[in-house]
Amino acid sequence: MTTPAVDETTLATPVTPRLERAARRAEARRGLLIALPSYVYLVLLFVVPLLLVFVYSFATRDATGQTILQDWNLDSYRRLFTAQVAEIFVRSLVLALVTTLICLAVSYPFAYYIATRSPRVRNILLVFVMIPFWSNFLVRTYAWRVILGSEGPISQVTQLLGGEPFRLLFTNSAVLIGLVYGFMPFMVLPLYAALERMDWRLVEAARDLYADGWTAFRKVTLPLSMPGVVAGSILVFIPSLGAYVTPALLGGARTVLMGDYIVSQFLAARNWPFGSALSFAVMFVMLLATLFYFRAGAKTL
Amino acid sequence: MKEGTAPKGPVQRLLGLNAWLVYLFFYAPIVLLIVFSFNDNDNVGIWTEPSFRWYQAMFGDDRVMGALRNSLVVALFSTVVSTVLGTMLAIALERYRFRSRAALDGIAYLPIIIPDVTMAVMLLVFFFQAFGVLSDLFAMNLTTGLTTIALAHIAFSISFVAVVVRARLSQLDSSLEEAAADLYANRWQAFRRVTLPLIAPGVAGGALLALTLSLDDVVVTQFVSGAGSTTLPVYVFGLVRRGVTPLINAVSTVMLVASMVLVGVSLGFQRGAEARAQRLADPEAVREEIVAG
Questions:
Q1: Which residues of A touch B98 (CB under 8 A)?
Q2: How far does A173 lie from chain B, in Å, by closest CA?
Q3: Full-model pTM
Q4: Which of A5, B35, B125, B207 has its CA 20 to 30 Å from the CA of residue A43?
Q5: What is the ipTM of this complex?
Q6: How near does any CA of chain B get to the CA of A2, in Å?
Q7: What is the largest CA-CA distance in chain A?
């Protein structure tokens, strides 16, 4: 049988390092090209704005309150260390920490309960966590304004029982309830993911080695679910620290938090340099918290 | 989970009680809000009798309807753009190696971590400065409005879409795309016929997330909206700050139902995708299917 001779060299070009490099370069170019639209967009509408706020934090204001981009100074940063700002900062920090702790304390057993159900029940229970997670945040916060208000259901019950009208709205406690309610799903979901992925045979092994339930939990389950604890805590702490909607709806004039303080600098006081410095201070604390937490989380693993 | 590892007795009962209390905490406010939206009384807290009065008032309110229209226009536009851009970003980051990839990776994650107040501040300063430059250079007179709102929503949605699509892409075997290339599909065909159908659930999930984020956003929108360009959440936020009215209950209920429909759709997508993936991942089921067929 005679087949037309095929020149093998023209079909399969031998792979030389030079060709390989060229192919890799072409591939890299293609990758960059695909990423380019989003890259440009994010640089223009995220990186540049971030740098602008940084520049603004060193700017001055003229007599009418307009920001002038000259006479660079550190006044805004100096003002961060005044008693008034420190008070707001500490209040926000404490509220965010307490929110995170409450969410963790309630969500851990909750996520544990869901993760130890049969797969069918687990899925149903999980859907009912997803619904508030996806529901409109503003509306969910507004619901508490109705509940805690002086005409709300709690107040009516206390009045029916012959008590005083119930007054919790516009206090730190109301903000705390709102924050816990708003951000709890962010804690439940990572905790659940960590517990569900866990190899339960390890717990069995611990029990076989005569560990009691509590010891097995402390020595096996808890360390193994640490990534979920870290992720959940960060996901609750960061938005709680920068919260604006919750304190604006549930907090009072004397319970200003970082979030509404920053907003008021831009929309009411028109002190953009100071507002910019505040924003950077908040971001700095968040960065520190995140780094610290990841460290701590990594150590326990 | 196997028998014998779960805590039994009183611990188990406490866990169960805790779970029910959490669900009560999650749902009591939502249910209460919905029930009171059907209340025929000017006072929010006093129940008289059921009626659709506040829903009628809502549909007759031009400002609510205008804000709703604005919300839908912005959400639709920003979802389409951020889904396309986010998907491209995910593919580039997951499938290609290029020089500035690490930097882009970091930039792509930041908008998710950063709190919305800082994002709002950044975009306000940016648009103010950009409009100043444009009016100096080209004598263009631009103001904030629906366009700036949409641009801002795209800026934070791209990252969320990219994360969701990337999660899907990383589960996929790139050998399928290589097989398509071996079978002489060009890059576009391989993407269109192989990659895109496989990542479709991820893209759909990302799009729904972008839609939800856009429809829910208050803080960023409030900063970059202009006169006459409020969205529904910003309008409601303004009303709520002045006080609680049954009309807001009705509007809130509509917003809640809309987000619940979105959850339903998204869970449906996920379930379909998971069922397909599980079928492929379980050799026993595949064998059974082959034997049966």
A1: 28-29, 31-32, 35
A2: 16
A3: 0.87
A4: B207
A5: 0.86
A6: 27
A7: 108
